Amino acid sequence: MTALRTAIFMDGAYLDHLAQGPWAEGTRPLALDMRRVPKFLNGGLNPKRVFYYHALPWVSEPPLPAEHHLRAQKEKFLAFLAADKRWVLREGRVERRGGHRPGDWIFEQKRTDVQMAVDLTRLAWRGEIDRAILVSGDSDLIPAVEDARTAGIRVTLACHAGSIHRDLMTACNETFLLLDTEMRQLVRR
Q1: By the 8 A CB rule, do 48 and 2 touch?
Q2: Fewer C-beta within 10 Å: the chain N or C terminus?
Q3: Beta bridge partner(s), residue 176
C-alpha cells in the first residue's frame, strides 16, 4: 500500500495561542520543535508538504524596542522554517483596530484563514493530496473543508479540546486532539 499524500495546514497564531495558554509552562510559552511537529501529526511519516500561516507582529511608527525584538525573533523563526523545502510559508498581515490610545487598540491577524482555505481547496481539486491535516480552530475554514471533502480528500482536524469550534469538528472526517502531555514531548531542545 502506498503512503497517503498528506499536506498539513498550520495556523501559526492558533499554535502561538496554545503555546502561551494551555501548553505554557507557568508563565513561559511552550517552545515547540517545529521540525518534529509535522511527522508527529502525520503518524510518524513525513508529509508531502507543510503550509504555515502567520503574520509578523505589529510594529509601531517609530518602532518600540520590544516590538522590534519580537519581530526579529519571528523573522528568524520563519527563516528557520523556510530552510526546509517541504515548508511553504504564507504571510498574513496584522492590522490595528480601535481608538487612538494604545490601551484601546486591538490587533487582528488578517488574510491567513483565506490563504489556508485557498491552498486546501486548490490542492484538493488538483488531486495533489489525498489527506489534509488542519491545525486550527477557526470555523471560517468550514466551507473549504467541505469543498475539499467533496473533492475526495480526507480532512483531519488537529486541535486542542478547549479551543475548537464544534462545527469545524463536525465538518472534518476526524479529529486528533493535541494533548498537553504529548505536545510537551515536542519541546525544542
Answers
A1: no
A2: N
A3: 158
- 10 has which bridge partners? 52, 135
Contact 11, 138 (CB under 8 A): yes
Give the strands of the sheet with 131-135, arranged side by side.
87-91, 49-54, 6-11, 131-135, 154-159, 174-177
Q: What is the pLDDT of residues 2-15, one digit of tens each?
A: 457 999 999 999 99
Report the run of H or E that residue 7 belongs to, with start and end: strand 6-11
Of the candidates 155, 159, 136, 130, which has an alpha carbon nearest to the alpha carbon of residue 3? 130
Q: What is the pLDDT of residues 1-56, one digit of tens each?
A: 345 799 999 999 999 888 888 787 777 788 888 889 999 999 999 999 999 999 98
CA nearest neighbour of 168 among 42, 47, 14, 29: 14
Who contacts 80 (Cβ-Cβ below 8 Å, separation ≥6)?
34
d(CA 32, CA 23) in angstroms, rounded, equals 10
Contact indicator for 68, 59 with CB cutoff of 8 Å: yes
